[in-house]
Amino acid sequence: MRLHINGDVRETPALGTLADLAAWLELPDFGSAIELNGEVIRRADHPATALSEGDRLEVVRLVGGG
């Protein structure tokens, strides 16, 4: 599957949902967000949100510091 992730085209295994993508990217349960084709998707909706070839995603990980 070919997805646009943070501006880069990436070949991924066949991922069915945003939850699958989050697991593949090893995103933490808290402190990250995914935007799919211009829309931020709530974490609770990740398991039901299907991915399609060519989708555009922005993945953000929050980083703490001081």
From TrEMBL:
Q: Which InterPro entries match?
A: Beta-grasp_dom_sf, Mopterin_synth/thiamin_S_b, Thi_S, ThiS/MoaD-like
Per the record, the domain of life is Bacteria
Q: What is this protein called?
A: Thiamine biosynthesis protein ThiS
The species this protein was found in = Geothrix limicola
